[in-house]
Records
---
Amino acid sequence: MKKKMVVIGFGFMGAVHAKNILENERLELCAIIDNRDSIFEEIEKTGNHGELGLPIDRLKKVPVYKTLEECVSKEQPDAVSICVPLFLHYELTRKALEFGLDVLLEKPFCPTPEQCDELIALAKVKGRILMVAHCVRFSPAWQFLSECIRDKRYGELKLLNASRMSGEPAWGAWQDEKIKKTCGGSLFDLLIHDIDFVISCFGKPEGIELNLNVDEYWEFELKYHEQLAKVSIKGGFLHRHTTFTSEYVATFDKGSVRYSSLQPEFIYTGTDAGSEIIEVKGDGYANELDYFAGCIEAHKPPIKCLPEEARTAIDICRKIKVLCPET
Ligand SMILES: NC(=O)c1ccc[n+]([C@@H]2O[C@H](COP(=O)([O-])OP(=O)(O)OC[C@H]3O[C@@H](n4cnc5c(N)ncnc54)[C@H](O)[C@@H]3O)[C@@H](O)[C@H]2O)c1
């Protein structure tokens, strides 16, 4: 039987998750929760990936509620996908776990490591699945890189340079100055994707070196044991309508791998013997959701994307902020 899933917060990410739930054969979108009166206005204009291509007619048939309490009593869901601004992550996740629901929570986990710890512990007590939606782990271009690092097809990784930039989001919560201040800026909202990817490959770094910070632009190194690769991350928010890019350059002993979301269909590799263009297929958000569906179906912890690692990513963002106290 399909698992009944609810999307909480029908903004940019909520719409993406709702669409993917409708298209996933293991899941049923049994409800949407949002505190606005009208949730379909403006929805196609949100996000930094262009048109969302939402199946609006099908979405309009899904029951909409204003609160989790009302939704739970009417729909008896199995799981929720929480897609609200960061300042609501802790409270809504706690509530959903208390109701005995499995939770897919959009990144970033919670503003403080203590809140993250509390939710991890609560999920264990309640015997529920808690996964923080770090989609880059499920994005095919990044999965390719992760496989290259693990199987050493080009030898040992020597250098990873990841970069992510965009205009500050121009939609939803970001239009409200008060809420915007609680979103954590580009470190917690954007660069945390690359930080989390690096954690998924190498674990918690031994140190952090901040090399540059101008407004919401950052350049820093995550330091690992000297025999491991050098890892540098850069990027952040530029002017509001600047094009989104996510890129990496990875140099191994015997080859290099390059990717840019400006050409999302291809990964470019090169060795001293020649070059190859590898086609990228699949969608990270859909893969991520399907992985979560498998975890709740089998009632198995999300070992490919553990909340403890999402908590480490929060810790690193906070440490970088401390290195630059005036921000
Ligand atoms: N994985 C990614 O690539 C990615 C991209 C963008 C955003 N995000 C994350 O997704 C989350 C949401 O971001 P967004 O861009 O979709 O925001 P958004 O502002 O577009 O949407 C938030 C929605 O939550 C609703 N909401 C607010 N308070 C609520 C409440 N109490 N109950 C129910 N609904 C409520 C709002 O009405 C709005 O529709 C954030 O954590 C953000 O960091 C992830």
---
Amino acid sequence: MDSREFAKTLEKQVADFCETLNTKLPAYSYIPLDSDEARIKVMQSRLFNEIRAGEIFGGWLKSTPELDVKKTLAEAVHEEYIHAGYLEEALKSKGAVPYEYKPLPAQMAMFNAFEGLTETVERIAAFPMAGEGVADYLIGKSLNVGTVPAWVTGPYHKIHEDEEEHGNYPFEILVKYATTPEKQERAARAVAMSLILRRQYFDNLDRWVNEDKMY
Ligand SMILES: [Fe+2]
Ligand SMILES: [Fe+2]
């Protein structure tokens, strides 16, 4: 398949997944939450994600031969730690200790799975395209709904702007490099892996926030 057509099929797969979240929005989106206590827990979990995302992108640098992708990943590392700073500040403003948080089992599994991917197209498809795509979709919703308090939306306005600024870079990387049937098959499977693990993470986070269960 033409690589642009292929990249579009992956985008559609991610968009379809996002659609399924609308019937019952996860705590991750902040939208169903009605207490700052719950919002703090979600933000601590998402602060962990920013730190872990930077680790993953940085860990991929040496094994990424494509110089343009390497540079993009290096910028992404820096950006994730800027995002972490925004969330740290917001948590401190509520009197919370930002890193008083242990990653949830499904959250660990999701990031460990990203870390284990070895090829540029599967990495980019799984994480920047599918993972961050879903995250940013829910950020957009939380900013627009009007019921999420300003101490939460403040940092996410800035994070959302960053995500919009680099536009559709995962898409363009896939157009450029997902050029063989073998690479396309691996990228498609990596997207499916990412989405199923994300659903697990969202469910795990829901159970922890709503029922105080770790799994
Ligand atoms: Fe990011
Ligand atoms: Fe981020």
